[in-house]
Amino acid sequence: MATKVCGCIHFVQRITFRPHVLFRDARFLSSIKARPTASNGESDASLRKKEYVNERGRTFVDLRRVLVRGGGGGRGCVSWFREPWVRFKRPDGSNGGNGGDVHFVASDRISTLDSVPITTVGVRGKHGRGKGRTGANLPPTEVLVPLGTIVYDVDGEELTDLILPGDRFVAAQGGIGGRGNGEFENGDPKTRIDDVEDPRILGSPGTEARYTLELKTIADVGLVGLPNAGKSTFLGAVSRAHPKVADYPFTTLNPHLGVVEFADHFRFTMADIPGLAIGAAQNVGLGHSFLRHIERSGILLYIVDMSNTNGALQPCVALDALREELKQYNPALLRKPALIAANKMDCGENAVEMLQELKNHTDIPVIPLSSKYGKGVKNVTTLLRRIVMHRRDEEQKSVKPKQSFSDFLQK
Prior knowledge:
Helix content: 10-25%
Low-confidence stretches: 1-40, 52-58, 245-250
Order of helices and strands: EEHHEEEEEEEEEEEHEEHEHEHEHH
Number of helices: 8
């Protein structure tokens, strides 16, 4: 903008007030001030990653009811082609395309049912056009679900179990496209389509169904223990997972999955299951929402608190309580290979005496450790690796194991 003062032309810059920019800058400055300081030597990026992981952990969903509907078929076309040297016009309308199906596809890129929409509708087929141009058939709509998702119908009957990446289930089929009048060009005049209101040109609707999706976490090793036994601390010590750790019970409310890696690139997965409360088999506490994730674990690792502080049960009593809850829920869980990790050996004054009592109380191998300081962690992961390798070899052979689990551990 230019102004003329005393015969001279002065250019004045136009200033535009943009409140959204000021709000964005203020929000950015407040986020910088709110960032925690890395007092324990951790980088700022590491702290923000932990905050993000904790925030995402609140949206864990392992049960969802969904409605799916296949895409409707496209309309057929009623069209007439007239040539200047032909007396009568002829029909040349084509059929509509078929609607798209709806598929449930197992994917290892997601770990919760939170991203699965409650309602999914397939894409409608393209309409037919004149001059013999048929409508396109639309591809299926894929709904990604995490590995270990079980699909039930409205009556509670299990339809499929999506375990491997790429496994799919046709949840709804698309409709068939409508018929064009060009299909009846040489047919009986009584059956021809001569009107756009003919119901035969309408595509059929897709099928509709309701399902219940249930997620059961798949892991090689499942951590089982009472609240505040140190399961999350152990998972954080052996993997790069960042479960929430605090000095109060029921810190973990959602399962966390970690990957234990070795120097020779061997790896296995480990699931941190929320703390098992007494009476979980009767749906007390987190109840069945916790116990369903243990069923997919190949090996059970009991985490027993040896500190005998903060009202913790005696190790033998805690182990019996855990196994009794698993027995009431599903007796088959007790037949899984199992180990006992005697955690918090650095906290209890009588930890050594209680460790010996625990070894005399059960036939399951007991390994002492301190997850907080990393003592004994390598012994646990090494033995777990042997068991995981043994199970994978037997699964590949697809035969009954020739030796029992107790005989294998004695080697």
